[in-house]
């Protein structure tokens, strides 16, 4: 089948394209780099022609509240409109475990709004909720750094390898629409501070990581288990230490 991958040149999207191609599908990466812009609508009608499935793994270029909200509102609206006109039978979106619990953050408000638009679109859909990627430990640290100190809340996290996320998205794309949400997570649960320390160590980054009960996660206050998936989540195979060994 022809599958159009919005954000198909990024970290997750490029892997989704590769995996689908390996399984004999026509996977088409769509991003501004390939002449498709969901913010303006440029190239959407052309790239969707003949497609059966659209996978949206795109992300906002900025996490500033106003920018990210505008990105997901406009991008998702344009994409769903073009899909309806093209007769797309399955819309797959990548989102985040705990989105509904993280509404103190502008980013997660935007992701929730995106999910709501998809559910209300009338197009058959599947939403994949993933935990935080191994590769994003540095970004998490950067968002909570002052000077040389990273301050995070004393909470738990169950991060996942980006390749396992891509595999889950690809499997979902070629399956029947769920008209619901599936969660995917890595096999190991960490304290957030330990995960960030490990992630920084991979990069030989010597910042100090400390905890603070008042620490925020992308602007949201959290309970200890807010970032963890439910008991029915699909658990990926790649362990963090295995991935980290391959980065050195």
What does this structure look like?
The chain is α/β, with parallel strands linked by helices and 248 residues long. It has helices at 11-22, 44-48, 65-86, 106-119, 137-143, 162-174, 192-202, 240-245, and strands at residues 2-6, 26-30, 53-56, 90-96, 125-130, 145-146, 149-152, 156-157, 180-185, 190-191, 208-211, 234-235. The model has no long low-confidence stretch (mean pLDDT 96). It comes from Streptomyces tendae. This is SDR family oxidoreductase. InterPro entries: ComplexI_NDUFA9_subunit, NAD(P)-bd_dom_sf.
Secondary-structure map with pairings?
Layout: E1 2-6, H1 11-22, E2 26-30, H2 44-48, E3 53-56, H3 65-86, E4 90-96, H4 106-119, E5 125-130, H5 137-143, E6 145-146, E7 149-152, E8 156-157, H6 162-174, E9 180-185, E10 190-191, H7 192-202, E11 208-211, E12 234-235, H8 240-245
Parallel strand pairs: 1-2, 1-3, 3-4, 4-5, 5-9, 7-11, 9-12
Antiparallel strand pairs: 6-7, 8-10
């Amino acid at each position: 089948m022809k599958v159009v991958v919005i954000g198909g040149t990024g970290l997750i999207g490029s892997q989704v394209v590769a995996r689908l191609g390996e399984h004999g599908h026509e996977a088409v990466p769509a991003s501004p780099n390939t002449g498709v812009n969901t913010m303006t609508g440029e190239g959407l009608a052309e790239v969707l022609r003949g497609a059966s499935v659209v996978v949206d793994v795109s992300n906002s270029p900025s996490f500033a509240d106003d920018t990210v909200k505008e990105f997901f509102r406009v991008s998702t609206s344009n994409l769903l409109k073009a899909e309806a006109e093209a007769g797309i039978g399955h819309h797959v979106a990548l989102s985040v475990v705990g989105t509904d619990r993280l509404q103190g953050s502008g980013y997660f408000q935007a992701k929730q709004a995106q999910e709501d638009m998809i559910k209300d679109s009338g197009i058959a859909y599947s939403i994949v909720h993933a935990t935080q990627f191994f590769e994003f430990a540095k970004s998490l640290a950067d968002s909570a750094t002052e000077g040389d100190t990273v301050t995070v809340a004393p909470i738990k996290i169950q991060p996942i390898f980006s390749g396992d996320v891509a595999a889950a998205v690809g499997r979902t794309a070629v399956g029947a629409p769920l008209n619901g949400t599936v969660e995917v997570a890595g096999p190991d649960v960490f304290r957030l501070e330990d995960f960030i320390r490990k992630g920084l160590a991979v990069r030989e980054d010597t910042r100090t990581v400390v905890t603070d009960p008042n620490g925020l996660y992308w602007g949201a206050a959290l309970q200890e288990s807010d970032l963890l998936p439910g008991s029915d989540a699909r658990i990926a195979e790649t362990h963090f230490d295995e991935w980290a060994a391959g980065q050195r």
